[in-house]
Design a protein that fits this description.
Layout (H helix, E strand, L loop, with lengths): L1 H22 L2 E6 L3 H15 L2 E6 L2 H11 L7 E5 L1 H9 L9 H6 L12 E13 L23 E2 L6 H14 L1 H13 L9 H10 L4 E5 H10 L5 E4 L9 E9 L6 H11 L2 H11 L2 E2 L8 H4 L13 H4 L1 H11 L3
Parallel strand pairs: 1-2, 1-3, 5-6
Antiparallel strand pairs: 3-8, 4-6, 4-7, 4-8, 4-9
Helix pairs in contact: 2-11, 6-7, 6-14, 7-14
C-alpha cells in the first residue's frame, strides 16, 4: 500500500510544479495607462520571451485599492501608473515590495527611481509652458514663477489642481522655494487666470488656440498628440527655468506588488522594460522621453528641442504632495 501512496504524492508534486511553471509564463499588470499605450511593449516582450502579459486597466486609485484589498491573495504582479506622486502613494500604502537590480540601476538614473527601490521610472514627460505663437513672443517667457507677474493677468490657463500633475509641480516648487514663496506664486497664477480651470491639458491647449488665453502649463505628450492631429496648430512649447533649476520632469513608472504571485518573472519584465529595446517602443508610442538616457527620443519629440531638466529626485513629488494640495486650496486653485 505504501508504493501507491508514494506514487500519488510524487504525481501531486509533479502537477504542482507544472502548474507553477505554467503560472510563471504569465505576468499580470494593473495599469492606469490605456491599452493602446502599453500593449505594443507587452506584445514585444511576449514575442521575445514567450511570457504572456495580462493587463487590467483602470484609474490609479481603484487599482491601488484593489491591490490593497487583495492582500496575500494578490492577482497583480506589477503596478504600472503615471506620476511619481502616485507611485509614492502606492509605496506608502504598503502595496509594493522593494527589489534591487543592477540592470535597472544602470539603465535608469537615480532621480527617476524610488530611493527604497520600490519602483522605477519607465518614461519621462516634461510639464512645461505652452504659448500662442500669434500673441506671445518666446522672449516674453522665462520661468514658471514669472507667470505670476502682472503682465500675464487675464492671459493664463491652468488645469485643475485636483490632478496629480499640478500637485507634483507644486510639490517640487515647495522643495525649491519653500512654502511662503511658493504660495505667493500660486496666488499670482490664480489671479492671472483668464477663465475657470480646465479638466485636462488638451482643453488648455485648445483654449490657447481659440484665444481664450495666451499661455498655459501642460504635459508634453498632450501637446504631441494634439499637434499630430493639427500640424498647423499655432501653439508651441517653451522650456522654462533654463538659467536655474530646469524644467519640471515627471514620469510613468512601475513597481512590484507586495504579494506578487510571480515575482521573478515580474522582475525580469521590469528589467527588460528599462533596456533600450523596450524604451524605444515605450517612448515612441507614448510620445514621451525615454527614462534610459542611452535612448534617443522619437524624431517628433526631439523636434521640440533640447532642455535642461530639473535634477530633483521625483519622489519629492510624493513626499510633499499633501502639503501641496493644502497650499493649492489656500491659493484658490480648485
Amino acid at each position: 500500500m505504501l508504493a501507491p501512496k508514494r506514487l500519488l504524492t510524487a504525481l501531486a508534486l509533479t502537477l504542482i510544479g507544472s502548474a507553477t511553471a505554467q503560472a510563471a509564463d504569465e505576468v499580470v499588470v494593473y495599469s492606469s495607462r490605456i491599452d493602446e499605450l502599453i500593449k505594443p511593449v507587452f506584445d514585444a516582450y511576449t514575442a521575445k520571451t514567450g511570457v504572456k502579459i495580462k493587463f487590467i486597466t483602470d484609474k490609479e486609485a481603484p487599482l491601488m485599492q484593489r491591490i490593497k484589498a487583495e492582500g496575500e491573495n494578490a492577482t497583480a504582479d506589477l503596478l504600472l501608473t503615471v506620476d511619481a506622486g502616485n507611485l509614492w502613494q502606492a509605496e506608502q500604502m504598503g502595496i509594493l515590495q522593494p527589489f534591487t537590480s543592477k540592470t535597472i540601476d544602470s539603465n535608469i538614473p537615480a532621480q527617476y527611481r524610488s530611493s527604497s527601490h520600490a519602483w522605477t521610472g519607465l518614461s519621462l514627460r516634461a510639464r512645461t509652458i505652452a504659448y500662442s505663437t500669434e500673441r506671445v513672443k518666446p522672449g516674453e517667457l522665462t520661468t514658471y514663477e514669472a507667470l505670476a507677474d502682472k503682465n500675464w493677468e487675464g492671459r493664463l490657463c491652468l488645469r485643475t489642481a485636483k490632478k496629480v500633475y499640478n500637485q507634483s509641480l507644486t510639490a517640487t516648487m515647495i522643495e525649491v522655494h519653500g512654502a511662503e514663496k511658493t504660495e505667493k506664486i500660486l496666488k499670482g497664477w490664480v489671479n492671472n487666470l483668464s477663465t475657470d480651470v480646465f479638466s485636462d491639458d488638451v482643453a488648455v491647449l485648445e483654449a490657447i488656440n481659440a484665444g481664450q488665453c495666451d499661455v498655459g502649463i501642460v504635459n508634453t505628450y498632450y501637446y504631441g498628440r494634439l499637434h499630430k492631429q493639427k500640424p498647423d496648430l499655432p501653439v508651441k512649447l517653451f522650456w522654462p527655468n533654463q538659467a536655474d533649476r530646469g524644467v519640471h520632469v515627471n514620469l510613468s513608472g512601475i513597481g512590484l506588488t507586495k504579494h506578487a504571485p510571480h515575482p521573478e518573472a515580474a522582475k525580469a519584465l521590469v528589467e527588460w522594460m528599462t533596456t533600450p529595446e523596450a524604451q524605444k517602443i515605450f517612448a515612441d508610442v507614448n510620445q514621451e522621453f525615454p527614462a534610459n538616457p542611452a535612448v534617443k527620443p522619437s524624431e517628433e519629440v526631439a523636434a521640440w528641442g533640447q532642455f535642461v531638466a530639473d535634477t530633483l529626485p521625483v519622489e519629492v513629488a510624493g513626499k510633499r504632495q499633501a502639503e501641496a494640495i493644502r497650499m493649492m486650496d489656500r491659493a484658490g486653485w480648485n
